[in-house]
Structures are given as structure tokens and as C-alpha cells.
Fold this sequence. Notes:
The chain folds into 2 domains: about 5-120 and about 255-290, Rossmann fold (3-Layer(aba) Sandwich); about 125-255, Rossmann fold (3-Layer(aba) Sandwich). It has 8 helices and 11 strands. The chain has helices at about 20-30, 50, 70-80, 125-135, 160-175, 215-225, 260-270, 275-290; strands at about 5-10, 35-40, 60-65, 85, 100-105, 110-115, 145-150, 180-185, 205-210, 240, 245-250. It has a 6-stranded mixed β-sheet with strand order 2-1-3-6-5-4. β7 (about 145-150), α5 and β8 (about 180-185) form a beta-alpha-beta unit. α4 (about 125-135) packs across α5 (about 160-175) and α7 packs antiparallel against α8 (about 275-290). The radius of gyration is 19 Å and the shape is globular.
Amino acid sequence: MPDALVIAAHGSHLNPSSSAPAFDHADRIRETGAFDEVRETFWKEEPAFREVLRTVDAEEVYVVPLFISEGYFTEEIIPRELRLDGWNTDSWDSDGTSATTATLTAADTGQTIQYCGPVGSHDAMSDVIVQRAKSVTGDPDVGEGFGLAVVGHGTKRNENSAKAIEYHADRIRGMDRFDEVQALFMDEDPEIDDVTGFFDVSDIVVVPLFIADGYHTQEDIPEDMGLTDDYREGYELPERVDGHDIWYAGAVGTEPLLADVVLERTVEAGADVRGAIEQVRNRTRMAVEMDD
């Protein structure tokens, strides 16, 4: 039976690069042939959440939110706009980082919707963070002698936002790859402003757990860390700050391997796409080796 994948992202009327990760990962998945149809949809751009299912012919649709945490958009906005009958905030039976999938019906189209958890709380996102560290340093073996800072926004409005950051920091710490691993935040303690104070090692890789590069990742975080007084003037990689070399990676959502996490979410919902996952991983690995 034909099936389709819909990648749901925030988008922006003000930042044209906000939608780029959704389009890029959709293209990577299209190249694998894993689904008969692949669509992107946005809250702040076209095609809109409310209309996207009408552009899909398949009767079964896997919807994957390209968001970091379980919260307002993934638990309220997307289900409401897709008109998912039977959805409620307990449908994933999640503690804030353990969402999997809920099988629902789209009220106006009658399609079966496999509504998947967001990419940001999936275990495979830990591998994407590590891959981001490899990409920014150009070292496929990066780890020994390095510290890793996983950075989130942090907000009192959604405690799950911090949970996702701490969850992946804990998982990567358990890999025993990096000498030190810290979860840091923009708007709550411990803060990214003091990044060098949290590490003893001299080399620190900083990976923001954001989907797209925008105001926070391109302006706020570099300036807050002291990489530059004015983001428009740029900075080096690595940049020397307080006796440490800072390797700033930019938004994790721009890492090509994130397409793997999108596919992993659909596997949890029953999609037979293991071959596509291997394709994405192999292409990502080859790209890093060519850059090395």
C-alpha cells in the first residue's frame, strides 16, 4: 500500500533559512525512495499544517515533527491543525523524552496518520550531536581531549525543553567518548555565557540543540560565549576564549545525519525503511571522510 512521509517544521516569515533543514532532509529521504511521497509542511510558511494532508494521495501517512522537544507545537498545534481524531496529550504516554507514535485518523481526509514523536527527543539524536562535533572539527575520531557542550534554549514555559538537552548530554556522557560533557542553556542555569568555566579541557565543542540556524544560533550564542563582540564580524574555528579553543558547530538540525532520525521515528511507527537509514548513514559517513 502506498505510504507517505510528512515532515512538520516551524518555518519563519522573517528568517528564510528556518525552513532549509526541512527541505534538505526531505530531499535526502526522497533520494532513498523509502516513501511514495515526501512532503514538507510549516507553521509559519507554506504549505501550512492545515492544508498539507490534502496534497498527499497516500492513505497512510507518517508525520514526523522536526522539533526538539515534546510540548506546545508537537502536542497541541500540529495535532489540531492536522485535525487528528482521538489525539490527547497522553497519546504518546511519554515522560517528556519518550514519545514514540500514536495511530490516529485525519478527520477531514480519512487518512490513517502515524503521528510520531519529535526528532529532538529520539535516542538517535545523540548520534547526530556527535556527528556535528565530527563535522565542525573535521575529525571523525573527535572525543579524547575534548569537552562537549550541548546547548538548549531553556524556558520555564516548557520543562521538556530542558529535559531533551539534559537527556542527550547524559547519553553522550555515558558513551565515554568525550572527556567532559555539559548541558548548558541560554535562559536558565547553567548558562552558555560561562561555557569555559564548566570545562577543564582546553578544546570545547559547542553544539546547539536547535533545528535551524537563526537569531539565537548565529547571533546570541556566539556573542554570549565571547567568540565575537559582533556576530557580523565573524569568528575563527576554533576561537580562543579564556584559554580554551571553542569549536562552535551551529544548529544540530542542519546536520545531514538528522534525516536518519526522521526515518528512525517512522520505523517505530511500523515503516519498513531500514535500507533507507543505511543509505543516509553511509552518505553522511562518506561526506565526512571526503572533508577530512
